[in-house]
Design a protein that fits this description.
This is UPF0102 protein PM3016_5176. By secondary structure, this protein is of the alpha+beta class. The chain has two helices and five strands; from the N terminus they run αβββαββ. The chain has a five-stranded mixed beta sheet with strand order 1-2-3-4-5.
């Protein structure tokens, strides 16, 4: 998803799930452009979900994507990744690494904050490497 690109054809407002999917698509496209290779998207297990899992060279990168509309005033999307969410992502990452036989790999946890308009147009994307 390029800056200003919309998910809807008619300019209508997206619901929360659609807006989140638009943010994840933009984040994945950005990370691919940075040379990362996707392994999984919305990977789930009993302990939780991880939005994006990619390889950055030999490093496994777990990415939490937070998408907000530009008219919100509750702080940044990245600030919403609290300690509880960090613990959940860390626990879920261990299950993924075990299942994929990647326990010997180094890992990193990133956060991508996406600001979008209500119709899905991407306004900005901020990538925080080693966020936690």
């Amino acid at each position: 998803m390029e800056k200003g690109e919309r998910m809807t054809g008619g300019g209508g407002r997206l619901n929360r799930r659609q807006l989140g999917a638009a943010g994840e698509t933009a984040a994945e496209r950005y990370l691919r452009g940075q040379g990362m290779r996707p392994l999984a998207r919305n990977w789930r297990c009993r302990s939780g979900e991880i939005d994006l899992i990619l390889m950055d060279g030999e490093l496994v990168v777990f990415v939490e994507v937070r998408t907000r509309t530009s008219n919100r005033s509750f702080g940044t999307a990245a600030e919403s990744v609290d300690a509880r969410k960090q613990r959940q992502v860390a626990a879920t990452s261990q299950v993924f690494l075990m299942q994929q036989h990647l326990l010997d790999r180094q890992i990193r946890f990133d956060v991508i904050s996406v600001e979008a308009q209500g119709d899905g147009a991407i306004l900005s994307l901020d990538h925080i490497r080693s966020a936690f």
